[in-house]
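Field reference: "sequence" (input) and "structure" (output). Example, Multiple sugar-binding protein:
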Amino acid sequence: MKHIALAAMLGLAVIMPAQAQTVVKHLHITSIPAEVELMNSIAADFMAQNPDIKIELPFLENEAFKAKLTTLLQSADAPDVFHTWGGGVFYEQAKAGFLRPVEDVLSDEAKEAMGTAGVSAFTAPDGHLYGVARDVGEVVLWYNKALFEQAGVDPASMETWDGFLAGVQKFKDAGITPIAIGAKDKWPAHFWWSKLVVRLAGKDGFQAAQRGEGDGFAGEDFVKAGEYFLQLAEMEPWQQGFLAASYGDASGFFGDGKAAMHLMGDWDYGAMKDNSANKEGIPDDQLGILPFPTIEGGKGDPTDTLGGLGGVLFSKNASDAAVKWVEFFNNAENQAKYAAEAYYIPISKGAADVMTNPFKVQIAKNIGNAHWHALFFDQALGPNVGGVVNDVSAELAGNSISAQEAAELIKEAVDDTL
């Protein structure tokens, strides 16, 4: 410091050493502008406290993310941190050597905050912890109360499959599109097949098929799931042009009040507003959640739910700074901001306590009371099998494949991985 003071006194130029910054790239799929602003704000807070770390937040849309991630992880431009839905896709990434174990770097506080379920969800079969759980979510039947009233459909009558189909017919008779679906993206269609499997096969049946036991996914319950799906598809319940409609298109169609129902994750509460023409969507007092219809003789528990346990994973070259950033991003104080705005249901202990949105509160209760919270099938079954599930689900929605063929294609995909 004496040399610097002397140089200043003599009017000499002083070149201060620049502070080296570690760059952390966090690849996300958040598309709602206000939610992106919140993420940017949290990153700004972190960088103010950690001037030696620079956070970059690149974005990829859902489908582009799935398509490009594997290539990105093998490139020089690999993100340090990236979104994950967990399950078999995550296991494949760990097995391929794309990820960094963080159990020795992640603090005990961070592990405790995401709880046993969160730690378990991001621990691979090799025993290493590769990520941090962020949120839980459920796929639910959103419905428009005004359209139900207009068509004379009692929501309570939709609780059984036969009652559900009868309600769909009433909407058609009233000239109202019963259901919005984004079949172009395929994964929205897989929610229908998956929910039917949850009802018909239940946890034990699904896990046995996943292991390749007996007839696997070509078994009776899985063929039946396709048959029930076709029963619905044959009624042409979807909006015009559904095969060319993306998730965003279908979400906006529902948000604009043009369809009575939309089978979608809890995130659609915000997305259907953002995708609607007026950016306001369906008013809360006109919006509701229906239980997915039960099926007589189904082996699933009526409380079973389908959804996600999302979070982030660390790529193999991620720095300790990346872990530090994620711990900050995922702390209860920051996650409570997401809960307060009803963007998602945080897993971080205490963060969800501030939730007042009645839909998110109900969904959190559903998951908490579930006998089985099934992970999205296209994620749980890994990328190869999951891709086939999505493909055949879109074909079932379009009534262009038989239930037997759909089931056999999924079984073949599973057999190829065993």
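The chain has two domains: 22-135+308-375, 138-305+376-417.
Strands lie at 22-27, 53-56, 81-84, 131-144, 177-180, 259-265, 287-290, 305-314, 345-346, 373-375.
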